[in-house]
Each structure stands twice: as structure tokens, then as C-alpha cells.
Amino acid sequence: MGERECFSSYFCERLFVHPLIMRLKSAPIRGSKEKIFRAAIRLFRAKGYSATSMRDLAAACGLEASSIYNHYSSKEEVLQNILFERATEFFVQLEPLMRMDLPAPMQLRMAVDRHVRVVTSDVDASMVFAQEWRHLTEPHLGHFINLRHQYRDYFIEILQKGMHAGLFRPINEKFAAVGLLSTLNALHEWYRPDGPLSISEIARQLSDQLLFGFMATREDELGLVMGSEEWSDSRSLESANQNS
What we know:
Elements: H1 3-14, H2 19-26, H3 31-47, H4 54-61, H5 65-68, H6 75-98, H7 104-121, H8 123-131, H9 140-164, H10 173-185, H11 199-214, H12 222-226, H13 234-243
């Protein structure tokens, strides 16, 4: 059983799960519906949700406007699919990590790495996720905000763990988690696949900058806090992420 399947039941036990998330997990988007889904991501990023019409979506897909409604009842339903699919990806990556017994600095570094990989796996979708969620209406807006808070709370949990162990200096963990996630979610604004830094290097540099701001120990003691030297190597970190 793969990580996504193992995650599913645990996800349901720990979190309020929006019905759309479970529908997406059981019936992945295919065919014309996927074509509309991908076109919507591109258009929402380029024009914004408000400025994009169902006619725009149809034109981008080479379909009649009426054909869109065979797959989506409204433009908001398309947005819902994009946002909750993306939320699922973030939780799929972070949930298994939260069940590992790791020192807080290592766990935080790996959480940053996994978050960066989700953001950079689809920059257009990540931008829509970060900026267009406010266009949701209730009850979907409340469900989405609930998921955002639960995801943020995982980072708060790591920070509290580090402070209790004396590895992180005393901070306002909620403020720190919000700031950290704001930095990570802004990746879509400047990340380029052909840029000078690899995804691993971006994750490494971001985690270094963020982590040293929290650390209660001197930089030369970080190797002892993180474990062995191999854990500070981005290639070993990537291997640990893949094997977890």
C-alpha cells in the first residue's frame, strides 16, 4: 500500500475532511474534466479568478461553453477542485512526517523540504492555492480555512516540541508558523524550473534561514542537534523524504 493510501484513513481520523477531498482521492480527474481543470489553473493565475469566465475556460479547451457544465456546475466548483486537490497534496506530504519520532530541528527541515516540493511541483496551482481561495463561498470557505489552520498547527506543534526540548529559543509559535508558511507559499512568485537553484537547494537554503532564526544553540552545534552530518546533506534529506 502506497503513502497516499496509508495516509487516507489516518487523514480521516485526524481531520475534518471536505467531501470533495475524498471524492478527488477516490475518483481522480480525467479526460475533458482534467483538461478544463488544467486550463482553469492557467487562466486563474494569468487573469485571476474574478476576471475568468466559463466562456474563457471553454475557449481555452476548444469546447463549447455549454460543454463545461457537463463536468462542472459552476466556475466556483472548478476553483474548489483546484484548492482542495492542492490541500490534499500538502497533507499527504506532511502527515507521515508528523508521525516520525525526530528531533524538532530535523523535523522542521524535512517539513520545509516537503512543502517546497509540493509548491514547486505545480507553480501555477500553488499560486491559485495561495491567492484565490478567498473567492470560495460557504460552507466551502469555512472548510478550506479549517484545513489551512490544521496544516499550520502541525508547524506550531514542531516549534513547541523544539522549545520544550530546549532546542528552539522561546518564541510565539503561532506567529512564527504563520511567518514561516507565508515565506514558503510565496515561492510561486519567483521560482523558475530553469533557475540557478535546484528544488533541493532552495529547500536547504530556506530551511537554513528559517531554522537558524529559531535555534537556541550556536551554529557550530547544529550538527549535534540534527544528528549525524549526513542529515545536513540535501541528497540524504531527499532520500529520507522518499523512504518515509
